[in-house]
């Protein structure tokens, strides 16, 4: 039974799939302090959070069983990604579910700041009928600067067009074509800062974006501009903003997010007549909360059940088309890695992976992660190594990883071969996917074979002499170990050969010793593939 802890307010409807799963038990414990979370996290396989819970390195360390942290939302700045990667904890988010909701909140804030709605509301309900103090400005015809043209920024731009705004956007990943498609001007931060009547930021908070709008930018801004932050506190320097408002440069600001949340009672935004605030409500709609909770629950279930998943934040994303091509190879890759590791004696210093055939044309990095997982898991335990931390663990252990690709593949449409080097030897296992048969191991060292990589195998190396097969069969029979399949591979008649047996249960050590003691036998080794 997998145990899942939900430590922030997450939609009940959204996590229904998790709650109803018969292999999952869900506990809800909101508002835990870091120490309280540390005290309980040890028994959980998954943790579901929003932006409140701080998932620090200490929390990860205490999470001895923790396999996944699911963020029901976009920003993962409350999660120590480095610590997660080092421990092989997968961090996933739900990047699409709250885009429209946050975009709409940005608009609500932009209109509210243009028309002084919160200030006018307060005065009106206070009994003062004041129509003079709240003359606003139109959005129509104004330059809207958008910093960060990702999911939310792009949606803001689309809606701003309907308001007749002139949109200038900046994003390091935005092309001219994309800008043209959206009908916006591809600009620079400096141009936007100098020309915007309204400005809104939609980037993550990174060392690069921290205070990307500060005193230097406010100094050159158009007098009377208005600024909105529904992304992350800290992208706009809060103190520099207050100064710019007080100097008459900025006419108004609308903030949903703060450098420290919740802000201190004496935070300068909280009583400022020209700054309107909301308590990080960007994603807070019924629809968005349901969407993100559904998305994150599905992926958490996949991860717990060792099924393919998407939206991992601490590993490179795999585009859907690439995933479709590679997914069938993941299990094969991991098994080839594991097979090769079990063949090899001593510490592995190099993993050489070769992709031949059609696979040479695609980005095989995700598959390499599975192969490396297979190799390392043999020594470190499958629980400790996964596709998130496999490359990191290899690097930590100074294991050199070499990947070769060639479009030529003589006998198969695709061939994946894994060879491992240690101080004393180099061993190779190659496999392919055969239509109708699934994953097959087709080469072990220099010997061609055809073996399904699953269950208990025994690999025997011997000299190709008459009678050997019979003797081995008898020994296995005497020990009550049933041989399901047997494959013999050799290069030359009478030369060295290998035999791969698939057996119905693990072969006892004594049996393997007996086999090895036969004349013309070199070695008998058990290989277990899950
Ligand atoms: N207030 C709230 O409740 C919510 C806030 N957010 C926040 O909104 C922000 C944007 O979210 P999405 O659009 O979903 O993310 P996204 O990843 O789709 O877009 C972010 C964009 O920022 C761009 N970017 C990165 N560095 C930049 C720089 N130095 N200058 C300009 N652009 C830069 C990236 O290239 C990317 O296109 C995130 O910080 C997210 O955490 C998201 C949802 C709710
Ligand atoms: O998704 C995001 O990045 C958000 O900021 C939303 O945060 P929340 O889930 O409302 O705490």
TrEMBL record:
Enzyme class of the recorded protein, top EC level: oxidoreductase
Residues of the ACT domain: 457-530
UniProt-listed InterPro entries: ACT-like_dom_sf (IPR045865), ACT_dom (IPR002912), ASB_dom_sf (IPR029009), D-2-hydroxyacid_DH (IPR050857), D-isomer_2_OHA_DH_cat_dom (IPR006139), D-isomer_DH_CS (IPR029753), D-isomer_DH_CS1 (IPR029752), D-isomer_DH_NAD-bd (IPR006140)
UniProt-listed Enzyme Commission number(s): 1.1.1.95
CDD domains per UniProt: ACT_3PGDH-xct, PGDH_4
Gene3D superfamilies xref list: 3.30.70.260, D-3-phosphoglycerate dehydrogenase, domain 3, NAD(P)-binding Rossmann-like Domain
Keywords attached to this entry: Amino-acid biosynthesis, NAD, Oxidoreductase, Serine biosynthesis
Residue ranges crossing the lipid bilayer per the database entry: none
Reactions this protein catalyses: (2R)-3-phosphoglycerate + NAD(+) = 3-phosphooxypyruvate + NADH + H(+); (R)-2-hydroxyglutarate + NAD(+) = 2-oxoglutarate + NADH + H(+)
Pfam families in alphabetical order: 2-Hacid_dh, 2-Hacid_dh_C, ACT, PGDH_inter
GO function term, MF aspect, one: phosphoglycerate dehydrogenase activity
Pathway: Amino-acid biosynthesis; L-serine biosynthesis; L-serine from 3-phospho-D-glycerate: step 1/3
Function noted in UniProt: Catalyzes the reversible oxidation of 3-phospho-D-glycerate to 3-phosphonooxypyruvate, the first step of the phosphorylated L-serine biosynthesis pathway. Also catalyzes the reversible oxidation of 2-hydroxyglutarate to 2-oxoglutarate.
PANTHER family assigned to the protein according to its UniProt record, in alphabetical order: D-ISOMER SPECIFIC 2-HYDROXYACID DEHYDROGENASE FAMILY PROTEIN (AFU_ORTHOLOGUE AFUA_6G10090)
Family of the protein in this entry: Belongs to the D-isomer specific 2-hydroxyacid dehydrogenase family.
Protein name: D-3-phosphoglycerate dehydrogenase
Name of encoding gene: serA
